Amino acid sequence: MDPTLQQQHFLSLPRPDALEGPQGGAPDTSTLAAHDFDVDTRTGFMPPQQPLLRLPLEWNVWENVLDAAMRGRLQLGGKEGLTEEERRASEEWREGVRNMPLLPTTPLKSSELLLRRAHLVLAWLLHFYIHTLPPSHPPHIPAPLTLPLLRVSRALRLPPVITYSDDVLYNWRFTSTTPLADGYGNPTLPTVGNIDAKETFTGTRDEAEFYLTSARMELRGTDALEVMRGIMDEVFVGDAIALSRVTSYLCELASIIHDLGEMLMRVKEVCSPQVFYDEIRPWFRGEDSSAGRWVFEGLESDETLERPRELSGASAGQSALVHALDVFLGVDKYSHGPSGSSSSTASSSTSATAEQPRSSFLKRMQEYMPRHHRAFLNHLANSPRPLREYVLANSSSATSDAPSEESKDSGAELLQAYNAAVQALKVFRDKHMIIVALYIVGPARRAAAAKAATSAFVPPAAPSATPTLSDATPTASTPSGGTSTHGTETHGKETQNVETRGEARSEAEEEGKEVLKGTGGTDLVRFLKSVRDQTRGALITLPEA
After folding, report:
1. Consecutive H or E run containing 174
2. Inter-axis angle of helices 524-537 and 352-366, nearest 10
3. Against a cut of 0.85, is the pTM above it?
4. 9 marked as binding residue
């Protein structure tokens, strides 16, 4: 039997805009058709074509104001040692935002690509505006920014805040040496080696590489989606040959998940943990991680708009890729279920009360995904033939009374392959906790220690030199587009101290005793531990025959 999908399978259908782009003057329906989940067989959740780099002239004011923010290297309002010149530059820029004309958004609705770019630009303006304010200032967002941002967000069904798609999925361009088409006129597709980040808050190469790490993982994840597609097809067929193919596919899926973990760990080579914690991460914070409530001005002029609620910052939890792996493997639904089919010791490690916040958080993070990716996850979750049930049924039959040797072997191999994929996902989350320990927990602990030491120290009349946080970790930030000198040598000392997996994981788990919020607004370490434990709990153990 031909293992390829039928021509009309939803994952086999080409995107209408893949070759031609949106039709001039006509609505862009590239992601509006019922069969299209905006998942490309060649690039996954990443768009196959370069995102729109700039809005048309009608909205040039927004683009120019964003250019000015990045060109001026605006600084965080809470930055230690902020100079009067930096403070004045930020206020002058914010005054420019307040004086922007109120631009129309209705014409943007003619194209999904226009809406995406508009959301990116306006959300970045919002975060520049909020986070350059002094911490003591209540954040009031002026109407020329509030109204178009809320209207564009409503059209896209996205929150009016920076999301993962604004930082990663639609924030890239081809490198300057990449041709836009091959010798036959076929458009160039994004790969792990031919893209660069377009917008950054800090102008550092660290920030660009931080976004690119996620983008490259998304592109590698395309193979995982292809494998999932093949498995769904074979589960539908359901014969002995299909079972063998599912087993092979699951082994391949485990290998891909392993690669994703290795790609995640390589972020250490290109992004300084201290630069990330001090200079990059604060820009992502949403309202739920801020000291004061964000006040959106101008809502009284448009009664159709509602005040936004629960605005979380950009987070890797908003990537549909890992959610898809969770849903496909059944980790999200079965690992703590009452059936007892999961590993009981792992399942008991997370209580039902802890599971509720985790589920609600992950569901909330899906609201920050492009709506078509949410639809894809919903489609995956409602499959009439869930993979986990298929594995349980075929593995259980192998342990039933008088199974054939062939059936027994194939069932055992299927179970082993499924557990290998789940274990690979658990190891991926172990690595995620290591990165969290290195990039967030460690710097937060050092910052708290430095603050405590400073408050306990009574300086003499002449100011003494107090080590700053940047002294704790050597960094080598360079402007975006320049050559970064920090690599494994730059972070060598810190990596030796933190990289050991057991030590880093222990540090993260120890920090779980304190509340450390992620940019998504969660109790970060406690949440990650519950996710990891749930993944481990999804391993299937069958009773002895």
Report:
1. strand 172-174
2. 100
3. no
4. no
